[in-house]
Specification:
Elements: E1 6-8, H1 17-21, H2 28-41, E2 43-47, E3 52-54, E4 57-59, E5 61-62, E6 66-73, E7 76-83, H3 93-104, E8 111-114, E9 118-121, E10 126-128, H4 129-137, H5 143-164, E11 178-181, E12 186-188, H6 202-213, H7 217-224, H8 229-241, H9 245-254
Antiparallel strand pairs: 1-2, 2-6, 3-4, 5-6, 6-7, 7-9, 8-9, 10-11, 11-12
Helix pairs in contact: 5-6, 6-7, 6-8, 8-9
The structure holds adenosine-5'-diphosphate and magnesium ion (MG).
The site of magnesium ion (MG) has 4 residues, from loops.
Length: 261
């Protein structure tokens, strides 16, 4: 492992790291405040690694609200979401509350702690769903079984959120919000735009993405066998009226994902 990219807390005030803590607009006072928050969270160092770049360093991810990095804490590694200085949110409290609700349904990375500018959660090591699907093609494993099991679990997570009244809000942009880990378990990320005050459309949005309108829809359909999109769209309309077990199982059937209990 490259040790040089593990940067202890006291060094985070230096460039280029300070630019990541306070992205995109660096301010000395803000950066000092943020380092105090990291101390309170029990973060001891940040490991600059991952598939995205900010400034000249590597990070796990970058979105409209946050930069996500790998943090070392007193109790092990964790994912740290850093609020961007230009985010249209004053703090991370809303996301923390939504993630906590998701966690109670067995969804999302486990929330560890949060402060105004940071959210600390379980680090999910794996591949974003589209990359995971592509990576399967280069293996000789039975693809259909693995895809079925991941999508079955994902649809189940969406159904649980629908029933509980928690709407994720961005599952039609699923490519950046689902990571599949090494055990083939899918994890839904980013509860920043989640809400308990609107009608949930988790399963409908995800099915839209997986089977109807994205670039991976055609491939999923080919892998899983024939899925009749018109029948699926009609069944989703019925499901939207009532998130009943019966309506949910109908969707699983149509997608070829039904498992006998
Ligand atoms: N818990 C996590 N473990 C590993 N990677 C993560 C985790 N949370 C987020 N990421 C990565 O960071 C990216 C951005 O995170 P996200 O929560 O979507 O931020 P934003 O709210 O700014 O869009 C994700 O697409 C993912 O690649
Ligand atoms: Mg996001």
């Amino acid at each position: 492992m490259k040790e040089w990219n593990i940067v202890p807390l006291y060094k985070l005030q230096e460039l280029p790291y300070a630019n990541v803590l306070c992205y995109p607009r660096f301010e000395l006072k803000e950066s000092e405040k943020r380092i105090c928050e990291l101390e309170r969270l029990g973060v001891t160092a940040i490991e600059f690694t991952g598939g995205k770049n900010v400034s000249t360093v590597r990070v796990l991810g970058k979105g409209c609200v946050g930069i996500v990095v790998l943090a070392h804490t007193e109790t092990g590694k964790a994912a740290l979401k850093i609020r961007r200085t230009d985010a249209d949110r004053k703090g991370m409290q809303h996301e923390a509350e939504m993630l906590k609700k998701a966690n109670m349904l067995g969804v999302g990375p486990r929330l560890l702690r949060f402060t105004q500018n940071f959210l600390l959660m379980d680090f999910i090591e794996g591949k974003l769903l589209p990359e995971w699907l592509v990576s399967l093609k280069s293996e000789n494993n039975p693809i259909k079984t693995r895809v079925s099991s991941v999508l079955y679990e994902l649809l189940g997570q969406c159904w649980r959120m629908d029933k509980a009244g928690l709407d994720h809000g961005e599952l039609s942009h699923a490519p950046k919000h689902i990571i599949v880990d090494a055990q083939d378990i899918p994890h839904i990320l980013d509860f920043e735009t989640a809400s308990i005050n609107r009608k949930p459309s988790n399963l409908t949005s995800l099915c839209q993405y997986l089977f109807i309108s994205s670039s991976i829809a055609k491939e999923n359909i080919e892998t899983l066998g024939r899925i009749n999109r018109n029948i699926l769209i009609k069944a989703l309309r019925v499901y939207k009226q009532s998130f009943s077990k019966e309506n949910f199982e109908k969707i699983l059937d149509i997608c070829g994902l039904r498992r006998e209990a």
